[in-house]
Write a structure and sequence with these properties.
- By secondary structure, the protein is mainly alpha-helical.
- The protein has a domain of 45 residues.
- 43% of the residues lie in helices and 0% in strands.
- Helix 1 packs across helix 3.
- The termini are far apart.
- The model has no long low-confidence stretch (mean pLDDT 85).
Length: 77
């Protein structure tokens, strides 16, 4: 069973694939292990403070529920 924390972990690790373009001074991309290490540490830190985000809560299956939309790019300034 997946939890909200698991989904956050996978989302963070996926987002870090292109970290080299965002993090100043990072000359090469992060390895898969490094990305998951960062994601694990992030979820752990959030859970340490009482878990107001309910990261330990199981997530129901959302397959085929509702429309999907593409994420919007942040404003480039």
């Amino acid at each position: 069973m997946r939890t909200r924390g698991d989904l956050l972990r996978y989302s963070i690790a996926f987002a870090l694939i292109r970290a080299r373009k965002v993090v100043r001074g990072l000359r090469q991309g992060l390895t898969e292990q490094e990305r998951y290490d960062v994601a694990d540490a992030t979820v752990y830190e959030l859970q340490k403070h009482g878990d107001p985000w309910r990261l330990s809560e199981p997530v129901r299956d959302m397959t085929g529920v509702g429309p999907t939309t593409a994420p919007q790019k942040p404003d480039e300034r």
